[in-house]
Design a protein that fits this description.
globular, 17 helices, mainly alpha, 472 residues, 81% helix
């Protein structure tokens, strides 16, 4: 028996690939949406490009609670299915989607009331404030639909249904791209609306995607009338959901706050701050090519590790986790190497401004070098999410961004070089430290103990319709 055959006997590479490729296409569509926004904005001017970058980071920050709920749902639902407890998984799904909608509405109201103070806190340059305020307002109005899309997609994937969220993202992608090009630049015979065209194209795409997600949730019976569990079940279920979600929300909050602080460091550079912001924004979009399949491996690791731990097989969970990390990191490193010679050409695609192009190349240089560390760390985070061990990501990720990246980035960019290069070097160093720390956790800590007991939450409560097998 060959080495590949022996490995395939203990690691389900076919299953991994079957989950990874649709999610990779989802990430591709998401990347196309972001890249189109930045490309169209760059054809208007650098201010619009920088404003979109800032509003996108604020949107990511506002999605923190949704991401945390998704982490809890991924662990609870995937482990429930692994244990053969499908009704329990459905109850968790109903609970999570209901909470997500309520949270999004609350955040939208609070964010709208505090938007002026938020931009002041982030030291947004005066020239960018009107544009950033405009984009942020529409982002807040679209937040409920964004939450339904995000949390709903996680619920589908936790049941190994990766095709329905793929359809949702593809539809949203087509609407966003056609709207950006048509109404942003006046292509296809549409009236040219410029900045408003970009903003409203994104808004429309998000709401159509949210509505389609909700319809699919109903069709799959993940969310139907009566699926929200009774209070007595919620009281028993909530502790585990909170055990996973609270560290996840703190991780996301501190990570996104860290990135917003990083933008503030860039925005307060002594010279060329707007150019640096525009370059970093575009560079992050190009870099997302690497993160696209990496996130697919991250979610796949969560699903499979959750399933195997739900079935009580800790050894298989470790094997699958390590195989997913190794495969994903190796593949993405090869993609990074393939991108390396083409950095100037990629930069030229996203901005006609030579100064912005130079910033994009600088950003990509250091972040492509960090690919094996960044991707390895991302997938290990997925392993911990599937196991419910999100506390490890909280300690490692937030320590690396707040104790390494931000202090070092400010020191190098403001005191040593006086330019954005200091931030990029700090990003490389912090990701190297983060990956090493996560590998230490994987090999030396008992992270499998955070999984649910197979006997937990066994209630003879009123019957619930199980999730349709044909859709899972």
């Amino acid at each position: 028996m060959s080495l590949i055959q022996r490995l395939s006997a203990v690691v389900p590479f076919g299953t991994i690939w079957g989950l990874v490729w649709p999610q990779t296409v989802m990430m591709l569509c998401t990347m196309v949406i972001g890249l189109t926004d930045i490309w169209v904005a760059g054809r208007i001017n650098a201010d619009v490009q920088a404003a979109i970058g800032l509003s996108t980071q604020l949107q990511a920050f506002l999605m923190v609670l949704g991401m945390a709920l998704g982490a809890g749902a991924m662990a609870a639902v995937s482990q429930s299915l692994g244990a053969g407890r499908r009704a329990r998984g459905q109850r968790y799904a109903g609970l999570v989607i209901s909470v997500a909608v309520c949270m999004a509405l609350g955040l939208a109201v609070i964010g709208y009331a505090a938007r002026g103070g938020i931009l002041t806190l982030l030291q947004v340059p005066g020239s960018l404030r009107p544009l950033t305020t405009y984009f942020l307002t529409l982002t807040l109005l679209a937040l409920p639909a964004q939450y339904v899309m995000g949390v709903g997609s996680t619920l589908f994937r936790a049941t190994r249904n990766v095709m329905m969220p793929l359809v949702v993202v593809m539809v949203a992608c087509v609407i966003n791209v056609v709207g950006d090009l048509g109404f942003g630049l006046g292509w296809f015979g549409f009236p040219k609306a410029g900045v408003s065209g970009i903003a409203w194209a994104t808004f429309t795409a998000v709401y159509v995607g949210g509505a389609l997600t909700f319809w699919f949730l109903r069709r799959c019976r993940l969310f139907v009338p009566g699926v929200v569990p009774p209070l007595r079940w919620m009281r028993r279920a909530a502790p585990y959901l909170l055990k996973v979600a609270l560290p996840a929300v703190l991780t996301s909050f501190l990570w996104q706050t860290g990135y917003l602080t990083l933008f503030a460091i860039m925005g307060s550079l002594p010279e060329n701050s707007v150019i640096a912001l525009a370059g970093m924004t575009a560079g992050m979009r190009v870099e997302s090519i690497l993160f696209m399949p990496a996130m697919a491996f991250n979610v796949t690791a969560s699903i499979l590790v959750g399933n195997t731990l739900g079935a009580g097989d800790k050894a298989a969970a470790r094997r699958i986790g390590l195989a997913t990390v190794g495969t994903g990191a190796a593949l993405m490193t090869l993609v990074g190497l393939a991108m390396w010679p083409w950095m100037p050409e990629l930069a030229a695609v996203f901005s006609p401004d030579a100064a912005v192009q130079a910033q994009i190349v600088g950003y990509l240089t250091y972040n492509i070098l960090s690919t094996p560390f960044t991707v390895g760390s991302m997938i290990l985070n997925g392993v911990m999410t599937g196991a419910g061990a999100t506390v490890y990501a909280l300690v490692v990720n937030t320590s690396c961004i707040w104790l390494v990246r931000l202090p070092l980035g400010w020191f190098l960019s403001h005191l040593v070089w006086g330019e954005a290069r200091g931030v990029y070097v700090a990003m490389l160093i912090s990701m190297t430290v983060q990956a090493c720390a996560m590998f230490w956790v994987f090999f030396h800590r008992d992270w499998t103990r955070y999984a649910m007991r197979s006997s937990s939450l066994h209630h003879p409560s009123a019957p619930y319709t199980e999730v349709s097998r044909e859709h899972s």
